[in-house]
Amino acid sequence: MTERITEVEHARRRRVIDQARHSSEMEGITPDWEGRALQEQYVAGEFNEAELVERTRALVLARNRRDRPAD
């Protein structure tokens, strides 16, 4: 679902994502291309903040299942 967002909202979203990335990088965490793609879609207005959180959680859970060693 693409939301129509104003330039002001676009700038706010860019600022929030840039701050989040900076904070993560200060802790030694760099989002991979999939995480960055989700962030950019959010900034562009493709979905809202709740959907960003939901999609990010799904991505992390899928990655954890994929990377977990087999029994």
Describe the protein in words.
- Helices cover 70% and strands 0% of the residues.
- With 71 residues, the chain is mainly alpha-helical.
- It has one domain (7-67): Helicase, Ruva Protein, domain 3 (Orthogonal Bundle).
- The chain is flat, with a radius of gyration of 14 Å.
- The chain starts with 6 loop residues before the first helix and ends with a helix.
- The mean pLDDT is 93.
Question: What attributes characterize this protein structure?
Answer:
71 residues, mainly alpha, Helicase, Ruva Protein, domain 3, 3 helices, 70% helix, flat
Percent helix among the residues? over 70%
- Any guess at the CATH architecture? Orthogonal Bundle
Number of domains: 1
What is the helix/strand order?
A: HHH
The CATH class is Mainly Alpha
Q: What general outline do the C-alpha atoms trace?
A: flat
Q: What is the radius of gyration?
A: 14 Å
Unreliable stretches covering 5 or more consecutive residues: none
Kindly, what is the distance between the CA atoms of the first and last residues, rounded to a whole number of angstroms? 39 Å
Average pLDDT: 93
Task: Compute the number of helices.
Answer: 3
Number of E strands? 0
**Proportion of β residues?**
under 5%
Structural class: mainly alpha
CATH topology: Helicase, Ruva Protein, domain 3
User: Major beta sheet, specifics?
Assistant: none
